[in-house]
Amino acid sequence: MSHPASPTASTDLPSPPDAPWPSDARRIAWLGIAWMFLYGALGTGLVGPNRPGIERELGLSHAQFGAAFAVIQIACSFSVLAVTSRARRLDRSRALSLSLLAQTVGFVLVFIGPGRAGLAAGWSLITLGATLGFVSNSLSAKLWPDNPRRGVLLLHGFDGAGKVTGPALAALCLGLGWRWSFAVGGALTGALLIVSWRIRLPSRAAVKPAPERQSPETTSTGSSEGDAPSPETAPPVSDLSQDAAASPGPSTRSLLREGVLPFALLTGANVSFATLVPTYSRTVLGLGASAASLALSAHLLGMAVGRFGLFSAKTPPPPNRVIALCIAAGLAVFPLAGRPSLIVALVALFGVGLMFSGVWPTYYGLVSPRYRAAPHRLDYGSALGGNLGAAACVWISSALAERSLFASLAFGPAMMALFGVLHFAGVLRSGRPEVG
User: Fold this and answer.
1) HEC profile for 173-233?
2) pLDDT in tens, 179-230
3) How far apart are CA 86 and CA 106, in angstroms?
């Protein structure tokens, strides 16, 4: 199924002082990048390394931890999406600020809260904030309109870089206790919160949106062979809150098929795998707590390298080829993670990270052109699917961990394989090898 090329932003920008669009767009772009970096560092990057300590201190089994994670994830996801779906004019950059506020309070509660109640209340707020932030996924298409696919890769490349630093942060704080890494997390999100509230968007009435024009150099996937688009050429930032006037876009059935379910599998596979790597490394590979955190960093380094590699490609490969190669390579190297050799296991974990690296952002860039008229629908679909998938997959893989840690670790790659089967079955049914 072929989609039209993404429009190239007009360079006829309003002159100062009414609307300094290049400066505003650049600030919001950096806010989105910083948020994605912290999301990667302070999400699964902290949960995985601290999971053994949390389970031990609070007396939780693997299955109990997974069930609690699932309940919080589902409840908070539906709460945020139910509210934001009725507030389509919610400004995307302001949503990021509200996200940071909820996460900051959540990290503080985890640090000072007593026992299970403090952890549950704090993690609920952290999850609320993360879900609210993901409602802003379409910032990539708004700020890099002539190449949204590479915009997604850039944002998620910083997410991958954050994921690498999260386990390193946890390893540094383990000597003080697992709560201290959450305290540092709260300090970082609080600092970015202060910065985010200083970003003031120009009034919508002051400026007319720049007209769109079709670029002959843009391919059917929304990619060009030149350098990555710069936020300086982005459309007026006031457009970030104009989804309410957009057409409804694809049907709800299409959104469930190509938005909710795929992102449930992709996010669930990633989160369930990452949260179990430190436990697997300590129990099966015999590593210490700090070394197990660094083993997770090796896996997440694969994600960062893969995403920045795809972003840096001067001529991006076809999206479906990226998806096929990433999944095939990850499934091929994963069995090596069960070998007793530490070096071989680390190489396998890095390879599985490469599998996760390219599929999520490539698939998002692939389907986003279909939702150009109503980007909020894909935002909500991917956020809902991602949170439900993370909840279900962590719960199932944690239950499997009671019987076999290797089987529980294999659950993530198995979900990636299922995504691949469903995606390419749809491609074959459409009769066209490339979508996007």
Assistant:
1) HCCCCCHHHHHHHHHHHHHHHHHHCCCCCCCHHHCCCCCCECCCCCCCCCCCCCCCCCHHH
2) 898 899 899 999 988 887 776 544 343 334 444 444 444 333 333 333 333 3
3) 24
